[in-house]
Amino acid sequence: MAKIAFIAPDKQLFLQGRKIIHELGIADRVVIYLARLKRAIRLAKALEQQDVSVIISRGGTARVIIKARIQIPVVEIPISGQDLAQVFYEAKKITALDRPQVAMVAFDNMVYDIESLSAILGINLTIYRLETSEDIPARIAEVAQSDADIVVGGIKTVLLAAKQGLPHHLIRSGEFSIRTAFAEAEKIIQARKIEKEQAQKFKALADYSLEGIISINPQKTVEVFNPAAETLLKISAPEIVGKQIDQVLSGIEVDLCLAKRKRITGQTVQQGNIWLTYNIAPVIVDSQLTGAIITFQDITHIQELEAKIRNQVLARRFVASYRFTDIIGSSPQLKESKRIAREMALVDNATVLIFGESGTGKELFAQSIHNESCRKHGPFVAVNCAALPANLLESELFGYVEGAFTGAAKKGKPGLFEMAHRGTIFLDEISEMDKYGQSRLLRVLQERQVMRLGDDKYIPIDVRIIAATNKKLGDLVKEGQFRQDLFYRFKVLTLNLAPLRKRSADIACLAQYFVRQFTAKYNKQVEIVPAVYRYLQEYDWPGNVRELMYFLERLIIICNEQVITVDVVKQYWDDREDTGPDAAVTVRRPEVAEIVAALEKCNSNISRTAELLGMDRSTLYRKLKSYNIETKKTY
Length: 635
Fold this sequence. Notes:
Helix content: 40-55%
Oligomer: single chain
Largest sheet: 5 strands, antiparallel
Structural class: alpha/beta
């Protein structure tokens, strides 16, 4: 419990104070001492280490304790007019004079308005002022040389006067003054309790806050430096408290805040390898500036929390589902594509460009690269650039602030680049992005930061970009439809996916996989004869894997037969593109030329030709027979 220390400079005040303490019923909260001047200072310093909230003392003893800059508040027992009137009455009584010459040796806190009171009471008063207790002997010597009839003052004054043989009288305090001092002490204790509670709350807030908190005085000297600030800035509090804020955080607008008493919010500054967002608020007490509070956070941490919340809200929308093991096929071309993609996954920040016809699985490869990279725990955001108008694509990618355009959400909206922070963004059909969008995308690639529509601040992001296209960007550059500098940015890592017609060895295993998937999904019991898979290999599949998947799904749904043969497939394959009499020639002409070229390159070696074309020997033999291609070895 908080205590009051009562330091009495003389025995009479000690006994008087003890009596009043018991009468007030506060003996359990008050400790009482007999000490004066220098001894009182030593005692007060010792009390700083104890559970003492306020000190009560009187006269010169109170004065010297205050001047010693003790950290405990001091309440002075006032010398009231009644007390002084009693002193002057006793002076007249001791001297037996109607108008005695009274010498008062006292500190300034004992002599307020005393001259007017002495005149009223018929006293000729001379005041000998004291600065320190060491002045008392000199002042007594001065009094001894004067015509004073009596000396009045504190306990040390009257003791020295007695030694000099001078008439003297001790200034005493009445009970009312002592009770007033205890009442004032109680008020101070309550105020200090409230202040201590607030300080503890602030300390707890500062200690456990995830934000860095720094408090500075008007001279920009650091006074508070919380644990989060130590962690973010990698410097301990003892190293910086008492030093200038510029030695810790440079480039922040402290001077503007202090000079104009203006709040600074939402500003960013780079500190080493991290970006911080900070706020500065002036601290004003009774219209006086007493300093400022700086709070700051690592933007990376904020965006991690935002990404976590967004992922929870948006469920699995931004999650990559596929891995390389989910990509079906065993052809040499597919194996090589997967090998290259795995190597790309190991390189964290380099941009990847995937080229392939529609339906070749570009997004599957993009998701697989993400899931095999160090970003696999971050979001995977897929955007089809061809599906959105140019103006809508821009707002979706970069976000916007409130009022950026008519119809903008009230609180603005973060862009997909922000939502992909610490993860991957997949830009499908990148060739369809307009020139302005391309220029903004180039800036993102160069600066690694985005600006929302209608805003004037950049937001740092950590995103890997994977783009995909089914068009040759080099040709679009020549035609002026695609920025050359952006094209070269994308050419860092390129991945070409072969169409299904060039890896027909994968058709059978893909078909078998889809059949198993759709028979289970639609609860169908059907048997596919092996000839069907060979028949499917003879088709070009211009829609690639997607076309094969959709055809087999439709086939499983609508067929009634328990056993599916080639004839059944022909029956339900009403949208096959090679249905005319010359279809085999017209559709297959590119493949015929490809096979002939491969035979010539491999000297008509069937095994080597099949491997080069990405098909097995039996499939190659069947195609040679179907296209009437003769094999002649050359030497």
